[in-house]
Specification:
About 35% of the residues lie in helices and about 20% in strands. By secondary structure, it is an alpha/beta fold. It comes from Pandoraea vervacti.
Length: about 475
């Protein structure tokens, strides 16, 4: 297998990864960015440089803001490998990457990095409800990806259900695109607003975020979208595809006929890569999720490996940029390109910028805290592991048999052994086990994640690619 040595390897080309690359180059490093996508931008700025939409402005000013970041990255002539999967990363910073598409056949290459910045971002929190595996049900994030990447919009009015800022942002984007929204079913608990007000001081230090939220809600009301609050139960009805959604609000059961249900209850850090490396993780009770344990520069418990952006804790796209830059300046110190004094001088403005975007986070975390009943479904027939079709009842029965953690549950049921390696069930299984045992989630733990992080074909493993072949699209995008 061919091996290439790089100064700084950046995994992911969202706002954190792009900002880290630009900062690294500024301080004399030669960064390499590997990205699974075809174009840089990540999820938040997906396809912003070549939007298929006739008017990308329907996605809003926050989306269009990403064009300047992507353009700056392109003009900087940074080594960029699109459609490239980093599927194994060791504590010695040896990385196996595979080209999965593009020009020519796929193949594998090994990298040796002086330092690594992981900028893989977030994933949608699992939202298992009865019927969520039916055709016609998908995550809001997946639907937004179709809109950004392919200009695909629903051909029928959708019902959006759940909680979190993205739920309202996407409803607003659909309305802008001329697509009617049938209803929004808000699952936030009745006391969420009261709890959020305890953090009003921090929210007031970020007025632009509050104003954006008010504008979204006003536009949604003006469009006549039905907005149901305090929904305590959800069920998608249908035998072979979604036909309706049944919900309970204020003690009354009601139904909306619909062929499209979009679910969302916030996002959580994608920790699959950091777990496979062996980085320490901590439970974040405010965000109800695991995140890698990092210092103030984003460095993990494994020296030389950093996490930037939402992968280190949910902060949003604007916070991801200074987060990526902070990781890059510390990497520059570690690799001998700048001294500590220069690092600290640069970090002053970056930390101020980061704080300006994270001060509202406690307010948002409390306002959109997912309800217990939607994180650990009460209905035993609800599928929690889509890959292996394991139900909530199966997990509870295994807890009764003595399973004390997700890894034992995996051995008993194959839950978490599918292609996603637990991305869509790991949080739910941990919360179900904790509930059954009457203990906190941190005591239950999480799956052991092993490479390959995502499926890799035998043909790709058997086909070694030389570095020059990967570099054929250096500093540009596929034609």
């Amino acid at each position: 297998m061919s091996t290439k040595r790089v100064d700084l390897l950046i995994v992911g080309a969202g706002p954190a990864g792009l900002a880290a690359a630009l900062e690294a180059k500024r301080h004399g490093l030669t960064p390499l960015v590997v990205d699974e996508n075809v174009l840089p931008g990540g999820q938040i700025y997906r396809s912003v440089s070549r939007s298929p939409l006739a008017d990308p402005g329907v996605l809003g000013p926050d989306y269009l803001r990403g064009r300047a970041l992507v353009d700056g990255f392109t003009e900087a002539n940074v080594d960029y490998w699109p459609q490239t999967l980093a599927w194994q990363i060791g504590t010695d910073r040896r990385v196996c990457v595979t080209r999965q598409g593009g020009q020519g056949a796929g193949g594998t290459l090994q990298l040796e990095a002086g330092a690594i910045v992981l900028a893989g971002g977030a994933q949608e929190r699992p939202f298992p409800i009865p019927g969520w595996t039916l055709p016609g049900v998908m995550g809001v994030g997946a639907a937004q990806t179709l809109l950004k990447a392919s200009a695909l919009v629903p051909d029928t009015p959708a019902v959006l259900a759940g909680c979190g800022p993205l739920l309202y942002l996407f409803a607003w984007q659909l309305i802008n695109a001329g697509v009617p929204v049938r209803a929004i079913l808000d699952t936030a608990e009745p006391g969420a607003r009261r709890d959020a007000l305890r953090h009003a001081g921090g929210a007031l230090r970020a007025p632009s975020y509050l104003l954006k939220g008010f504008r979204l809600l006003r536009a949604i009301r003006a469009a006549g979208v039905q907005h149901v609050k305090h929904v305590s139960s959800l069920r998608v009805l249908g035998k072979t595809q979604a036909q309706a959604i049944e919900y309970v609000a204020q003690g009354k059961t009601q139904r909306i006929d619909t062929a499209l249900v979009l679910l969302h209850q916030g996002v959580i850090p994608n920790t699959q890569v950091t777990r496979s490396i062996g980085c320490d993780h901590v439970w974040d009770d405010a965000q109800l999720c695991w995140r890698p344990k990092t210092d103030s520069w984003g460095e993990t418990s494994v020296p030389g490996i950093f996490v930037a952006g939402d992968g280190a804790g949910i902060g949003g796209a604007l916070a991801a940029e200074p987060s990526g830059r902070l990781a890059a300046v510390q990497a520059a110190v570690a690799l001998g390109k700048i001294d500590v004094a220069r690092r600290d001088s640069r970090a002053l403005s970056l930390r101020r910028e980061l704080a300006s975007h994270t001060s509202i986070r406690p307010f948002l975390d409390a306002l959109y805290r997912p309800a217990d009943g939607f994180r650990a479904p009460a209905d035993d027939s609800t599928i929690v592991c889509r890959c292996e079709e394991v139900t909530a009842g199966d997990v509870r029965r295994m807890a009764e048999l003595g399973c004390i953690g997700p890894n034992q549950t995996k051995s008993f049921s194959r839950c978490g052994m599918g292609p996603c390696q637990g991305r869509f069930c790991g949080m739910t299984v941990a919360e179900l086990l904790a509930q059954a045992q009457g203990c906190p989630v941190p005591e239950v733990g999480y799956y052991r994640i092993r490479p390959p992080i995502k499926p890799v074909t035998l043909g790709e493993l058997a086909s070694a690619i030389e570095a020059p072949e990967f570099l054929s699209e250096r500093a540009g995008f596929p034609k």
